[in-house]
Amino acid sequence: MPALAGNANKFLAVNSAANGVAWVQSLPTLTMSHTQPLVRYVETDQAGAVGAFQTQVEGGAYALLRNTAAARDFSTNVAEHQVNSAGRHLFGGAADDVLYKFIFEGSMRCNGALVATVNVTYTSDGRLKEDVKPIEQALSKVERMRGVSYVRNDLEDRRRFVGVIAQEMRSVLPEAVQEGSDGYLAVDYGALSPVLIEALKELAARVRQLEEARA
User: For 104-132, how does the pLDDT look when each residue is reduced to its tens digit (9 = 90+)?
Assistant: First the structure.
C-alpha cells in the first residue's frame, strides 16, 4: 500500500505496468461498469435535503438527480436532467412527449439572444381557455401605445432596438407586462397582436361607415 502522507485528494490506480498501484493526480479515463452504475455527491458541510446530487445510468438512460429528502437518501428527488435512450433531453423533471429533442419544465431565463431558425409558437388551444372575453376599445389602446427606438445601457452592443417602454405599457395593457425577481419589467410582445387585430377591425368598421355614408 503506497504511503498516504502527502497524497491528499489523489486517486489510487493500477500502474502502467499493471503490476502494482500508485497515487495519481487525475484519471484520463474512469469507467464504471455495472447494471445500474451511479455516482452520489454529498456535500458534508450542508444538512437536510440540500447539497446532495446523483448521476446514474439505468434502462439505457442517463439522469442527474437532485435529492429532496431530508434524510439525504434520494427517496424523493427531482431528475434535473435526463437523456433517454432515444437521445431526448428532459430538464427540470419534464416528462417525455416524444415530439421534441429538448423539453423543459418550468420557466427559463436567457441572458442573451434567443434565436429560432424556424418558428416560435405559443400554446393557444381553446380547450385550455375559460372566461374568454372580447378585447374592448382596442383602437383606443393602440393610440395610447408608443413605439420607440433605443439603445440598451446594460449591453456592450450599442446597436439600436425598437420596441415599447414597459412602464408605459403597464398602464395600457397590464396583461402584457411582467415584473421579474430582479424588479425589472418585461413585455410579452406576442400579447400585442390580438389588440392590433381588434384595433384593425374597429378601424375597418369605421372606414366602412364612412364609405356607406358617402354612397
Answer: 999 988 888 889 999 989 999 999 999 99
Query: What are the start-end ranges of the E strands in 115-202?
Result: 148-151, 160-163, 177-179, 185-187
DSSP 20: S
**Cβ contact 80:91 at 8 Å:** yes
Cα angle for residues 41, 44, 46 (degrees, 5° grid): 100
Reference 95, options 77, 82, 108; nearest CA is 82
CB 127 within 8 A of CB 139: no
Q: Domain spans of the chain?
A: 1-30, 35-104, 133-214
Beta-carbon contacts of 77 under 8 Å, excluding residues fewer than 6 positions away, are 54, 65, 66, 67, 68, 69
Dump the DSSP string for 69-100.
-TTSS-SSEEEEEEE-TT--EEETTPPP-SS-
- pTM: predicted TM-score of the whole model, two decimal places: 0.71
Q: Which amino acid is at 183?
A: G
What's the CATH class of domain 133-214?
mainly alpha
Determine how many CB atoms are found less than 10 A away from the CB of residue 61. 17
Nine-digit cell string for 187: 413585455
Between vectors from CA 163 to CA 192 and to CA 205, what angle results, nearest 5°?
40
Please determine, for residue 16, whether its predicted confidence score (pLDDT) is greater than 80: no
